[in-house]
Amino acid sequence: MNVGIIGLGLIGGSLALDLRARGHYVWGISRNPDTCETAIAIEAVDAASHDAMAIATLRPADIVVLCTPLDAILPVLAAIAPHLQQHSPAAIVTDVGSVKAAIVAGGQALWPRFAGSHPMAGTEQSGIHAAISDLFRDRLCAVVPHADAAVTAAVKTLWESVGATVCECDAEAHDRAVATISHLPVVVSASLILTGDRIPDPQIRQLAQGLASSGFRDTSRVGGGNPELGRLMAEGNRTHLLAAIDAYRLTLDELRDAIYAGRWTELQTLLQLARDARAAFVE
Ligand code: NAP
User: Fold this and answer.
1) Do residues 66 and 77 make contact, with C-beta atoms less than 8 angstroms apart?
2) Does the CB atom of residue 131 touch ligand 1 within 6 A?
3) What DSSP string describes 13-80?
4) What is residue 130's three-state secondary structure?
5) Neighbour-count burial of 74, counting CB atoms closer than 10 A to its CB (0-12 exposed, 13-18 middle, 19+ buried)
6) pLDDT tens, residue by residue, 160-183
7) For residue 19, which of 24, 133, 163, 227 is within the disulfide window of CB 3.0 to 4.6 Å?
8) Cα of 154 from ligand 1 centre, angstroms
């Protein structure tokens, strides 16, 4: 299979590494010429260019995966669509963006054989140097089904080939669900870090930094990630993220009120509910 990857960063570079390792011909397009050189040097791609027009000189793609930051996905598709039409008219296009409703609607308007996807995998790193093999192994990948079952099947096969388990879901439902389990954690984790950093007493802050261990490392991980991705995610999923933040504040207040009033049995019950519910989310 010939695969085109646009945006050779953490996700695009990692996907390219895995696909190429499985014998596919992979070409890439990325904004920065150095990124393209690095992608070739680490053998993530067979060919790469910073020029979208280069599609004309690359092998016709069976599938193209848009792996740029969220705000570039539709502009990039708009820019390459005429070249794809000419050189890979049968190509299926997908993306990896963490918000789906607007991208699927816009993507299908630009390229009818577009089906959105979102691999639930990542690290705090970004860029081609962060690309790693097997990033998607044993991870879930949301795929928004296309009206043409063959398009959906091709996108599912792509993700399954790199070890992911596909979960088909409607774009709107996806955005509502990830608002709570993916986007809200970034906001909560960032506010936790900022709260620690804003401890007013410098000596206590320094002591807190010195004592912070695995618990703080775990809970602060997603809040310490790429700020640009976090902003784009909030912009792209604003309505559902605001609803999730409001629901979270209510729950936080419930816990706070129990502590304030010394209702320790109620607090323990809430913590027990959280402990029991955690298994359904993470196991
Ligand atoms: P990233 O490491 O920053 O990679 C994105 C790459 O896209 C950049 O390295 C940049 O490459 C390239 N790029 C930017 N604008 C471009 C343009 N106009 N044309 C071509 N290439 C362009 O980010 P990422 O973490 O891989 O995220 C990429 C996408 O994956 C986002 O849409 C995000 O929502 C989604 N996603 C991320 C995660 C995660 O945890 N990180 C998880 C799931 C999905 P240059 O070096 O060439 O500038």
Assistant:
1) yes
2) no
3) HHHHHHHHHTT-EEEEE-S-HHHHHHHHHTTS-SEEES-GGGGGGSPPPSEEEE-S-HHHHHHHHHHH
4) helix
5) buried
6) 999 999 999 999 999 999 999 999
7) 24
8) 22
DSSP state of 112: T
- For ligand 1, say whether the CB of 31 is within 6 Å of any of its atoms: yes
Contact 14, 131 (CB under 8 A): yes
- pTM here is 0.94
pLDDT at 55: 84
- In a mutational test of the pocket of ligand 1, which residue from 229, 233, 241 has the highest number of ligand atoms less than 8 Å from its CB? 229
Structure tokens belonging to residue 184? 């809200």
pLDDT score at 277: 97
Predicted confidence (pLDDT) per residue in 76-99, tens digit: 999 999 999 999 999 999 999 999
| pLDDT value of position 180 | 98
Give the pLDDT confidence score for residue 104 in this predicted structure. 98
Which amino acid type is present at position 97?
Answer: G
| Helix extents (H) in 179-283 | 184-197, 202-211, 214-220, 227-236, 238-260, 264-282
Tokens, residue 42: 């680490």
The token duo for 83 is: 């070249």
**What parts of the chain have a pLDDT lower than 50?**
none
162 φ/ψ angles, rounded to the nearest 5 degrees: -105, 15
